[in-house]
Every structure is written in structure tokens, then in C-alpha cells.
Description:
The structure holds two protein chains of two kinds. Chain A has 17 helices and four strands. In chain A, about 70% of the residues lie in helices and about 5% in strands. In chain A, α7 (about 105-130) packs antiparallel against α13 and α11 (about 195-205) crosses α13 (about 215-240). Mean pLDDT of chain A is about 90; it is low at about 340-354. Chain B has a seven-stranded mixed sheet. A five-stranded parallel sheet of chain B has the order 2-1-3-4-5, with helices on both faces. The termini of chain B are far apart. The chains are: A mainly alpha, B alpha/beta.
Amino acid sequence: MMSPSVARRTFATPVLLGLLLIAFALVAVAVGSKPFNQTIIDIFLKVIFVVGLWVFVGNSGVISFGHIAFACLGGYVAAWTTIKPMMKGMSMPGLPDWLMQTEIPYWGSAIVAAGWAALWALIFGSVLMRLSGIAASIATFAMLAMVNSIYSNWESVTAATSSVVGIPIIRSIWPYLIAALISVFAAWAYGISRHGLALRAARDEPTAAAASGIDIPRARLIAFVISGAIMGMGGALYSHSIGIVTPDTYYLGLTFITLSMLVVGGMGSLSGAVLGVLILSTLIQTLRWLEAGVQVGETTFALPGGVQEIALGVVMILILMFRPAGIMGNKDLSLPQWAALETKGSQGPKNLKT
Amino acid sequence: MKRILTALAATTCLTAPALADDDKIIVGFATAETGFMQAYDKPAQDAAMIRISEINAAGGLLGKQIEVVTADTKTDRAEGAKAGLTVIDAGADMVVVSCDYDFGSPAALAAEGAGLPSFFLCAESIKAGIQGVGPNSFSASVLAAVQGATMADWSYSKKEARTFYRLLDTWTEYNKGICDGFDYMLPKLADAKLVGEDTFLNEDASIAAQITRIKALPEEPDAIMLCTMMPGAVSAIKQIRAAGINSMILNGSGVDGSYWLSAVPDLSNFFVPVQGSIYGDDPNPDVTAFNAKYKEVTGGDPSTQYVYPGYVMIDVWAKAVERAGTTETAAVVAELEKMNAEPTLFGPRTFTNEIHHQNRARYLIVETNAGKPGVVDEWTISEAIPVADLMK
Lengths: 354, 392
């Protein structure tokens, strides 16, 4: 049941996370360097992906390896709807005429992408959500492989493995910030809605939840569709951030980095999802700068190339050694005076099922 | 939280933008220093550095020294965009991007967005240029299609090949490009006949089925056009020869180099088009001198011909800057587009306002005989491949 008090009690979480994201954006503006701006855009995109992932994984407890498939669907929607009709004709001649003539702004493509990904999440989800545990995880992985296979081979519609170019590049940080804020607030609103609460109940006590009248596959399906929509929007914006799209961008690499960010941050809470991205991204970026070399006085210190990947792995292992439930565990960010209330009242579950 | 922000703020200070300086010219390399593309980018970049140091030693460009800034793309597209922006922020007057179109285009698009000229180190797709990036983007290499067309034309004219078999590895655009060029050339050769065609995938462990179909032909074809690249090429070649097929094998430049020849002992009747010879027998002694210089600088001989486009790139760009008298993009691009058969160490180069790539080029033909590669001929296709045919 969504009571106003739940909303009031937990409202601080999305606000604090939002402020944190705004702070990142302001740092980017203050620094004023183009590559740094692009780095922050990249972080916001990861926030969208990981929050999208959290909506399903965090609430249902089912690990999904397949969500990046929705980002792929979204990424190609951006290509289909925003590239100039003439260029589209050359790279993707198989598009239907009405789509060939369509040219909409980037925010329009993000919205359409969200809808398109949600539609497919609904179709896939109505089958997959009947599974649970590891079977569901592997099934989502199969979905990723399937989408990747189709998009890598459907030459006339996706240009197969070739890069599709001509997607308008958006280098302003604000659209990405707004999209990240939308995802955070949407994820929060879903989390405290009756559907979110029902799904979390089903995650922790499936038998009791089912006995209380919760239709578990349906509850999961709702989360799956919402998270699919968020991923789709993120996928479209990802295309707009670099201006090209290929199927292998949205495959194993992105799947595992987003999952690791979620696990390291703590998949029990929305704050864990967002902080996981912010902390790991900051770490990755710092290591990259160290790789590029840091001037200290007369000498330049530089890590050997490739250390970043190794160090990232080591740090992730260390974090999980000491905090197996992730950095945030099941806790959400909240204002200090409300913290006491929070722990007394709605402490999250301790054990997650995968 | 505060700690993260402090760390972030602290690290960002390190990348404070350097402003373009008037007494130097800056070339920005947004290329792969790590990841698998490094194997392609590094050699060409080393060659580019050799040309830059030659120019600097001779007094610089427009009387200014050329400086180099670099950023690592990590063989990743999103990082590629950042690397492009990084070198642009560092004041680059020209942006050099990764060898491959897929990995180089994000940085090239960033340069295009900033109104700067960009050069792909050795991309061989028509998209690496006006068609796939924009009016200020160029590639330093020659189109894959020219390689296929050259091999068809040359084997027809010089080796009397009349029956051809086309074997395409559909893994990459590059492979398809070679076969597209072959397809363009074949109908132009009177009584040359395609007796069969087949496809495979680079990762296929066995191409026995394809080989069986070649063996089933009433007569062994004169030549097999093999459109593939490393690493799958070695296995395909080995299997063709092991099956007792002795037709001449025609290839793209992607299989140049002797590093893999020990895997197919005593390989013969095997032909590769190259822009310059790494085997010390280039008809132009300056190329051999360059090879020695390359060894001196990097400690090793060039391993394939893909070293050379890096040198050509700086060469033609510097000439354009010299002629324009400025590094201003529009003027430099206009000068580049005026180049018609501009002589370089590795053959003449032409750019037009329609295509920033070579749709015709002189190629040396390297024959491998009893496992020993060497230059046997040189060939230029009679006319440039029309852009319309390249865009298919």
C-alpha cells in the first residue's frame, strides 16, 4: 500500500541522489573541459543504465544479464528516428518508408526508445517472468544474445555490424542530467508504489507473498517493463552521446560493467545503484588519469597502461570482501534526523535471492 | 560523498585545457594505446612520428615546430569520443584517429564537430572520410576495394588468370570491401569468368565444406580471390593448400607480413598487394631507407605494410598546410582536395571534394614463393573505382 507517509519518509533519498548528480554536473560546468564534460555524460548514462537495472534486479532479486538488450533496442531507435532521411537510405535501406522519412529531435527519440524497449520488455517479460532464480537469469542472457544476433545480422534495417553514423551528437550535459534525474525519481516512485512493495515482498518471502494474493509473475513483469523503458531511454541517449551505434557496444562489456556497478554499490537499495556508478566511475577515471601520467614537480608519474582494468578488479573484490551486500547494503541515503525512523521502521531485507 | 567530490575536483585540475599556441602546430593523436587496436595504431603512429621529427628537423612547418598530444581510446568507442575531445581541448590543429572506422569514428566525429580536420591512420572503408564522418575527414590508406580490383586486374593481365573463385569471410567490412572491388573489376575483364563463390567466417575452425565445393569444380580455378584477414586467414590458406588446391591465391593487404608464414610451410603461388615493401626489396630505395630508420626508432622492422599510411598521412597534411600557409581547416582541406597524384614515398595520392580516400592507387605485388615473400611487380588499376560503386 502506498501511503503518503512512505513517500514523505523516503522522499529524501531521490532528492539527495538528485542533488549529488546535479553536483557532478556543476563540477563539469565549473571545470569547463570538453573531455571532462564527456566523462560526466558517460557517468550519467551509466546511472540511467544501473538505475534501470536496479528497478528490476533490486526489487525482484532476480539477476538480469539481459537488460543491455533494451539499451540496444533504444540505441537503434535513435538511429532510425534522428538520422537525416538521405543518410538513412544509404546505411539502412530496408526501413519502411514512413520511418525513413521520420526525423525527430533527440528527446523525441529518447521517449520513443523508452516506449519501444518497454514494448519488447512486455513481450519478452510475459514469458520470462514465469521463471525464477538462475533459470530466469540465464533466460535474460539468452534474450541479450538473441537481440544482439538479430541486430548484428539484419543488414537492411540495422546495417548489421557496421557502425551507423549520422546520429546528432548532443554534447550538452543537461539532457543527460535530466534523464538521470527522471530515472532516479521513477525508480524511487516505483519502489514505494504498491507494485514495488509487493515485488520486494515476493523477493523475500515468495510463499507468503503469493499466499497474500500477490501475483508474482505480474509484479515482476511490471518492474521488467519499467526497467526496460529506462534502459531504452538510456540506450538512445548513449547513441546521441557518441554519434554512432553498433550492436557490440550493447553487449557483454556494458552488461558486466553495469552489473558490477550495481553489485558493488549494493543492489538492495536505489542509493546503492547510483553510488555504485559514481564511486566506480570516479575510480576508473582516476586510474585513467594516473595511467595518462600525473605531473608532480619535475617528474611525471604514470601507471603502466592496462593497470586500470586490474586495479578496478582488485578494488571490487576488496569492497565485496568487506561489504558483501555492496557499499550501501540495503540502506538508502536519507537525512540524519530521519535515519533513526528509517532503521526502526522499514529496514530492508537482509538476504537477497539471485 | 565529499571525499568523492574532492577527489574528482583534484583530478580534474590535471586536465586543465591547454590553449592553442601561436608558435607551434599541434597534432593530436586520439588512438589506441591499449586494447587490441593498439597493434594496428602503434606502428602507423610510430611512422607518423618519424615524419613529424623529419619535418621538425628541417625547420618545422610554416616555421613552427610540430608538437604532439595524445589520448588513449582504450579500443573503446565511448572512450574514443573522449580521447578526441581531449586532444581538441589540448589545442590540436589536426586530429589523428584510430585505424579502424568503427573505433576511429567517435573521435573523428568530435573533430568534425569542432571544425577540425581528421585523419584515420589506416582505415580502408569509404565511410572513413566524407561519407561516414564529414567534409573534413580523411583516410591515409587506400580503399579495400582497390586491393581486390588490383588483384583481379593484375592476375588477369599478367598471369593469364581466366577462371576465378571468390571466397569471402563475412566477418568485417574490410573483407567485404576487398570482394566488392573484385566484383567491380571482374565484369570489365573480357572472358574472365567467376566459376564459383562461397562465404565463411573468420572464426570458423574448418572450411572443409567450402573446400569440397572448390574441389568439386570440373577444373581447378586459375585464381581464388580470398577476401579475409588475420587471424582466420592463416587457417583458411593452410586448409586450401592442404587439400591439394594449387590455384593462385589473391588477397588483400591484410595478410601482408612474414610473421605467420611458418604456419603454412613452403607456401607458393600466393599474392598480396602492398603500398610499400617491408622485405627490403622495394623498387624505391627511399622505402628501404625508411624501414631502416623505423628499425632505429622503434627497435624492430615494420611487421606489415600498415606502418606506411602513418607516414603518408603527415606527409600530405604537412604539404597542404605549407601550401595553404595556415592550419585553418577550410584552407587545408581545400589544398588536400587539390592533390592529384601527389607523389609520396608510397605511391601517388589523390583527394577530391567527392572522396577523401584512394579509389585508385599504385600497388606493389608481393609473391610468396616457397615460403619467401618478395616484390614481383607493381600495378595500378586503369581507372578509379567510381564512388557510386563504392557506396553499395
